[in-house]
Structures are given as C-alpha cells and as structure tokens.
Design a protein that fits this description.
The chain has 8 helices and 7 strands, in the order E-H-E-H-E-H-E-H-E-H-E-H-H-H-E. It is of the alpha/beta class and about 260 residues long. Strands 3-2-1-4-5-6-7 form a 7-stranded parallel beta sheet, sandwiched between helices. The longest helix is centred in the middle third of the chain and has 29 residues, at about 100-130. The protein binds nicotinamide-adenine-dinucleotide (NAD). Nicotinamide-adenine-dinucleotide binds near residues 11, 36, 60 and 61.
C-alpha cells in the first residue's frame, strides 16, 4: 500500500518508533530512522522487510539538526511523504522539585521537535497534495498524572499542534492525527517500573501489576505492533478524511 512512499520516524531506534517504522515498512514504505543507541539492529530489522532504510542521528532538541535530517531524507529518497513525530523522554518529579533542565529538554524533544519537523516537511507534502503527519502523543495528551508536569504539558501541546496542522491542511491531501497510547512496555516505561520496584521493595512483576492497576482498566500493555497498525490505518485510503483526531489506545485509561 505504501510502496514508493518515504516515512521519517523520529526516535525510531527503540520502542514505539521502531514498531511504527516496521509496520510502515511492511506496507512497502522506505524508512528514515532516527534516535540514539544501537542503530545497526533497528536498521537490519527494517531492511529485512524488503525496503530501503537510512538513518540520521539528529538530536531532536536541536532545530538545526532537525532541518539537516529533513534535507538528508529528501536527498536519500526524494521527499518525506509520512512524518511520524515520535521521539520522547520522561522525567518524574513534583513541580517544586522538577529540574529546570529536564523541563526544557522534555518541552524541546517531546513537543517543539514536532513543530520543527512538521513545518519543514509540510511544503513538499502540500506540493504533492499527499502527506501523513502522525504525532505520537500519549494518553497524557488528554489527561494528567501527578509528577509528570513537563510530559503532560508537552503532550497536551502535541495534541493541540495536531489539530492546527490538520485544520491548516484540511482541504488538501495532507492529514495530521495523533496517537495517544496508555502504557507500552518500552525502555521509557521499564525505567518507571524499576523505580516503583525499588521504592516499594517489591518485585518487577508486582511493580508492573501496580503500574497497570493504577491507570489502565484492561491491565494490559498496548504493544508497538498495535500502534503501528493504527499508523498504517492513518496512511490508508480509509484514513483520507480522518483529520485532527487524538486517538487513544490506552486500555480504557481515559474512559474513566
Ligand atoms: P523509548 O525510550 O523506547 O524510545 C524513545 C526513542 O526516542 C528512542 O529511539 C530514543 O533514542 C529517541 N530519543 C530520545 N531522545 C532523543 C533526542 N533528543 N533526539 C532524537 N531521538 C531521541 O520510548 P517509547 O516508549 O518508545 O516512546 C516513544 C514515544 O511514545 C514518546 O514520545 C513517548 O512519550 C510516547 N509514549 C510512550 C508511552 C509508553 O508507555 N511507553 C505511552 C505514551 C506515549
């Protein structure tokens, strides 16, 4: 379905981003990966799906590096047809103790990077009259949780940006939507499980059950594969008129 298209997925060396990159690759899209840590493993996983894959190591907190990445993607594959703004980090602390440097980093990486990548990707999409911008927000783009001020602020911002991007392009073939996962067992969440286990002197399994039990009625993690399938739907012809939604896949978290 996506043969001949190019997808740039930020923060795709791990977790949800890699899951979405693989789901888009399985539909034939060439992939530009981004993120830190091991690159060869994720590159090989995507290449195994029979598409072309490139990597750019832009730090998503740096607008000049984001610009360089968009130019690189266009030089590699012609243009970016699908942009998935996914890179994100977390820090957990009460507001009065929240390190200012962590606040700035989360706002830059989780929110402002989506603005920069979007503004740079849009002109080519508008010219082609086809484009898909998918913002990986969070259930925390819809509801709050204590000790996550920067994250909740950034994710609500991303949901707002999604609506404005969708509206500004509503009469074109360019759509923009957000995905709002509940808990997904990635390194980002494993750190929170580990912290809970250490603080409570409990096992990893007990900490995991507590984490799910506090917020997620299904008591199940959402998987990167399920989120990838939603991204594929947004890119499909059936998604042509889905514009500006913030679609949660959260086991009922926001329904409470
Ligand atoms: P993860 O830690 O597995 O992956 C994060 C990715 O972002 C990695 O590839 C990492 O290298 C990259 N990254 C981090 N800082 C970066 C930077 N400055 N520049 C470029 N890349 C950077 O986490 P994940 O759980 O897969 O999270 C992906 C997205 O999904 C995030 O936006 C996160 O907020 C969101 N999300 C996660 C969950 C969850 O439960 N895991 C729930 C809702 C939303």
């Amino acid at each position: 379905m996506l043969k001949g298209k190019t997808a740039l997925v930020t923060g795709s060396t791990s977790g949800i981003g890699l899951g979405i990159a693989k789901a888009l690759a399985a539909q034939g899209a060439n992939i530009v990966l981004n993120g830190f840590g091991d690159v060869d493993g994720p590159k090989a996983e995507v290449a195994a799906l029979g598409v072309k894959v490139a990597y750019h190591g832009a730090d998503m907190s740096k607008p000049a590096e984001i610009e360089d990445m968009l130019k690189f993607a266009a030089a590699q594959f012609g243009q970016v047809d699908i942009l998935v703004n996914n890179a994100g980090i977390q820090h957990v602390a009460r507001i009065e103790n929240f390190p200012v440097e962590r606040w700035d980093a989360i706002i830059a990486i989780n929110m402002s990077s989506a603005f920069h990548a979007t503004r740079l990707a849009l002109p080519a999409m508008q010219k082609a009259n086809w484009g898909r911008i998918i913002n990986v927000a969070s259930v925390h783009g819809l509801v709050g949780s204590a000790e996550k001020s920067a994250y909740v602020t950034a994710k609500h911002g991303v949901v707002g940006l999604t609506k404005v991007t969708a509206l500004e392009n509503a009469t074109t073939g360019v759509t923009c939507n957000a995905i709002c996962p509940g808990w997904v067992l990635t390194p980002l969440v494993q750190k929170q499980v580990d912290a809970k286990a250490a603080a409570g002197g409990i096992s990893n399994l007990e900490a995991t059950q507590q984490l799910l039990g506090e917020k997620e009625p299904s008591l199940q993690f959402t998987t990167p594969e399920e989120l990838g399938a939603l991204a594929v739907f947004f890119c499909s012809p059936a998604g042509n008129n889905v514009r500006g939604v913030a679609w949660n896949m959260d086991g009922g978290w926001a329904a409470q």
